[in-house]
Design brief:
Distance between the termini of chain B: 18 Å
Oligomer: heterodimer
Number of helices of chain B: 14
Distance between the termini of chain A: 47 Å
Radius of gyration of chain A: 17 Å
Largest sheet of chain A: none
Helix content of chain A: 40-55%
Low-confidence stretches of chain B: none
Radius of gyration of chain B: 20 Å
Strand content of chain A: under 5%
CATH architecture of chain B: Alpha-Beta Complex
Number of strands of chain A: 0
Mean pLDDT of chain B: 97
Mean pLDDT of chain A: 89
Number of domains of chain B: 1
CATH superfamily of chain B: Amidase signature (AS) domain
Order of helices and strands of chain A: HH
Structural class of chain A: mainly alpha
Chain lengths: 57, 461
């Protein structure tokens, strides 16, 4: 589990403790769903910053 | 009455645009205090535009099917001289000095705009329980949410205030209120409708589209708003077509995919029954139903959430110095986005490329997919959990479970009503097609609608 409180502090974000507590669980849940996907990425896969659903003219 | 029927009545001089507009204003006066569907009503402007529309028709200038038709737009589309709040305190005094592309095109097509519709704050949520402008109510049951984020759009169309309303969809925000309010909702292909002059949430996920009373009405609106716009960097140059399905169109020869994984897991029983019934109806209408295994939708959802968290926080980071301006749910999401590292955002966009390619292969075996729009019916206003498949689920994550991933792919998706729950709440059927195949998706929707899939319109108590 990431130390989200330390990450908040290191990021220089001045968040109230109650607000930090509120976001830890959803961030952890997303981390659990997302991290395994990243492990399967090979270096040749480029990002799709803009969808290319058609050939440019 | 549909747009097509109102348009015919206008041309037969059975009704005038002024009369249609006055009727709509009357309904706003009667219903808006309860529904909270509008943030700003532009009644005088609408009356002026309606008079113009009547004068033009009398003079033989016909702008097409939307000429003189009362409509409204979600309060994130700029309308010159009118405030664009985005449902947020941050922009409560922000008056637009230009028209958004959508407003521009609707007005060119002759639509009469009655104002700006309430929404989930900043379009970042699915309840439309707006802390600044009031919680939008569902016309079918005022204790229930209309969905969101385009909740005012769904409520205004379902309550017959306007013939059509514009919404935006970043993770289901057109299709969810359409499903919960019993209207049609179309999310076109990414790039098909210009985003120019609309408040962004997720730059690579935002789509603009209509909510209407019928599938053909959605096609008529799409005809007016689709097309290249150089002011939107993501706008597609692909030529537009006539999206309106032919009268008597059929499902014969259409290969419809019936997902055997994910889409039918953990559904409300009424939703499952209604959607399976609609798919059976599609088969009886001549479609070929093929069971298909869809790519990993849970992965799509996780990737879409990472991208949206980062993009939305990038947009609104400059405003977070005053945290009191944001509602707690939106603030929590904006805080989360500030903690996702850039590496994760880039890897999410890499995964997106893989997932688009995987999903595109599906279109080799089927022409479109049919599935539920949401696993649930409209939750009660204030509910944070929903019980599905014997377990409690976060209401936002449950409600977006079957729609969010399609925004990542950019494919067109249509929600049409396909039944009512035992408690009298609408249920949505989702039709997903390949990129730029709006005409096919609309044809399937219209064929089902013509074939009896749908619900009776909401009647004012």
């Amino acid at each position: 589990m990431k130390n989200w409180k330390a990450i908040v502090e290191a990021s220089g974000l001045d968040l109230p403790a109650r607000d930090v507590d509120r976001i830890i669980q959803p961030l952890e849940a997303l981390e659990a769903a997302f991290r395994p996907l990243v492990r399967n990425l090979s270096p040749d896969v480029e990002p799709a910053f803009r969808l290319q659903l058609e050939d440019p003219e | 009455m549909s747009i097509g029927e109102a348009a015919a009545a206008l041309r037969a001089r059975q009704v005038s645009a002024v009369e249609l507009t006055e009727a709509a204003i009357g309904r706003i006066d009667r219903l808006n205090e309860r529904l909270k569907a509008f943030i700003t009503v532009t009644a005088e402007y609408a009356r002026h535009r309606a008079r113009q529309a009547d004068e033009e028709l009398a003079a033989g200038r016909d702008r097409g099917p939307l000429h003189g038709i009362p409509m409204a737009v979600k309060d994130l589309f700029d309308m010159q001289g009118v405030r664009t709040t985005g449902g947020s305190r941050v922009f409560r005094g922000s008056v637009a000095d230009r028209n958004s592309a959508v407003v521009e095109r609707l007005e060119t097509a002759g639509a009469v705009l009655l104002g700006k519709l309430n929404m989930h704050e900043l379009a970042y949520g699915i309840t439309s329980a707006n802390p600044h402008f009031g919680a939008v109510s569902n016309p079918w049951n005022a204790a229930h949410s209309p969905g969101g984020s385009s909740g005012g759009s769904g409520a205004a169309v379902a309550a017959n205030i306007v013939y059509a309303a514009m919404g935006s969809d970043t993770g289901g925000s057109i299709r969810i209120p359409a499903a919960f309010c019993g209207t049609v909702g179309l999310k076109p292909t990414y790039g098909r409708v210009s985003r120019y002059g609309s408040l962004p949430l997720g730059y690579t996920l935002d789509h603009m589209g209509p909510l209407t009373r019928s599938v053909r009405d959605a096609a008529l609106v799409l005809n007016a708003i689709a097309g290249f716009d150089e002011r939107d960097p993501a706008s597609s140059r692909r030529p537009v077509v006539d999206y309106v399905p032919d009268e008597g169109c059929s499902l014969r020869g259409v290969r419809i995919g019936f997902p055997e994984n994910f889409y039918f897991d953990c559904l409300d029983l009424d939703v499952e029954s209604a959607v399976r019934g609609a798919i059976a109806r599609a088969e009886s209408l001549g479609a070929e139903i093929k069971q298909v295994k869809v790519p990993d939708i849970a992965a799509l959802n996780a990737v879409a959430r990472v991208i949206l968290l980062c993009e939305a926080s990038a947009v609104y980071d400059p405003y977070l110095s005053d945290r009191s301006q944001f509602g707690p749910d939106v603030l929590a999401l904006l805080d989360q986005g500030r903690l996702v590292p850039a590496v994760d955002y880039i890897n999410a966009q890499r995964l997106r490329r893989q997932l688009v390619a995987q999903f595109a292969k599906l279109w080799q075996s089927v022409d479109c997919l049919l599935c539920p729009t949401t696993p649930n019916t409209a939750p009660r206003i204030g509910d944070t959990k929903v019980r599905l498949g014997g377990r409690d689920e976060d209401v936002r994550l449950a409600t977006t479970r079957l729609v969010r991933g399609i925004n990542l792919l950019g494919f067109p998706a249509l929600s049409i009503p396909c039944g009512l729950s035992t408690t009298g709440l609408p249920i949505g059927l989702q039709i997903v097609g390949p990129a730029f195949e709006e005409a096919l998706v609309l044809r399937v929707g219209a064929s089902l609608e013509d074939g009896g899939v749908g619900i009776s319109p909401w009647i004012e108590p």
